[in-house]
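Training component of the fellowship. As part of building independent skills, the fellow (R.M.) carried out the full modelling exercise for a liganded target. The chosen ligand was 2-phosphoglycolic acid. The inputs are recorded below so that the supervisory panel can assess the work.
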Amino acid sequence: MRTPLMAGNWKMFKTPADTTAFFDKFLPLVAGAAHADVAICPPFINIPAAVAATSGSNVTIGAQNCYWVNKEGAFTGEVNAPMLKAAGCTWVIIGHSERRQFFGETDATVLQRTVAALEAGLKPIVCLGELLAERESGQTNEVLKTQFLGGIAPLTPEQFAQIVIAYEPVWAIGTGKVATPEIAEDTHRAIRALVEEKFGADAAAAVRILYGGSVKPDNVAGLMAQPNIDGALVGGAALKPEDFAGVVNFK
Ligand code: PGA
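Fellow's submitted model of the complex:
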């Protein structure tokens, strides 16, 4: 059985002091959550505060991006995967749609960053998802297949076994328009079929596929009841301790 992963993506929100205050409230609310892995991915600047606050707890910390080569160098503004590992990160989100839309992320750089993260000992949460126009014109499966073939399929089976996939329909992110459990389940099933075709049935049965896009305490149970949905990548509802605890404690 796949252990659910409930991961919060804080995007560009909160200071170090806000981070400590969040975990003071959040940790007691999820201390009994043995049914799921729980992670928070804050902005880089808050990683030390988040790692310190969660030390010895059941919550792990991740970053929202990493550089695509594991060397130091003259790359102003970048942070590499070994630095994140040394700072205490477990996870790194790769290829979020906001990186693709606003910062030039491509399937090729998703693949490079994923390999770099794996080589540094981080667990990548690799994001896929279609735009509204793509869904409305019936291109969803084709778009996801292109993203999968470019960003994920070239991994070795050993590398693939270490990643988590997050399906995030772009039209559902931050819009309040959650995909229905049926739409999400259909798409997750299609992604798992791509995995099976490339990496085989065992890999397809083992990989966790998270849903992301307007997940809230009041809609998470319906999503998590679907057989192919193995957790959530949560933006807005991960910013408040009570809300994200409500998502984590979905059952
Ligand atoms: P949202 O964001 O929960 O605010 O829709 C999800 C995400 O972008 O990871």
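The panel noted the following from the submitted structure. Strands lie at 5-9, 37-41, 59-63, 91-94, 123-128, 164-167, 209-212, 231-234. The CA atoms of residues 215 and 234 lie 6 Å apart.
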